[in-house]
């Protein structure tokens, strides 16, 4: 199957701004899934609905720096 050309090459950059200490295990695992685990660390990921859903679950701990 071919990828959707409309979403090809789109990325989103997120930065962790909150600590995972005293958070639910699912939220800590979501941060690890976003390749974040320390404050002020940034990660550039493919902009997919799954990634957007993960960002939504921990929106109080991350900041979207750039969404191209």
Automatic annotation (TrEMBL):
SUPFAM superfamilies for the chain: Ribosomal protein L30p/L7e (SSF55129)
CDD domains, sorted: Ribosomal_L30
Transmembrane region(s): none
Keywords linked to the UniProt accession: Ribonucleoprotein, Ribosomal protein
Keyword Acyltransferase: no
Residue ranges occupied by any Large ribosomal subunit protein uL30-like ferredoxin-like fold domain in the UniProt entry: 13-62
InterPro entries, per the entry: Ribo_uL30_ferredoxin-like_sf (IPR036919), Ribosomal_uL30_bac-type (IPR005996), Ribosomal_uL30_ferredoxin-like (IPR016082)
Domain of life, per lineage: Bacteria
Stored Pfam families: Ribosomal_L30
Quaternary structure annotation from Swiss-Prot or TrEMBL: Part of the 50S ribosomal subunit.
PANTHER family per record: LARGE RIBOSOMAL SUBUNIT PROTEIN UL30M (PTHR15892:SF2), MITOCHONDRIAL RIBOSOMAL PROTEIN L30 (PTHR15892)
Name of the protein this chain belongs to: Large ribosomal subunit protein uL30
């Amino acid at each position: 199957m071919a990828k959707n050309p409309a979403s090809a090459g789109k990325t989103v950059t997120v930065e962790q701004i909150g600590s995972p200490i005293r958070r639910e295990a699912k939220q800590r695992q979501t941060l690890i899934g976003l390749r974040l685990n320390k404050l002020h660390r940034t990660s550039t990921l493919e902009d997919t609905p799954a990634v957007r859903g993960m960002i939504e679950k921990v929106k109080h701990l991350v900041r979207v720096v750039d969404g191209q």
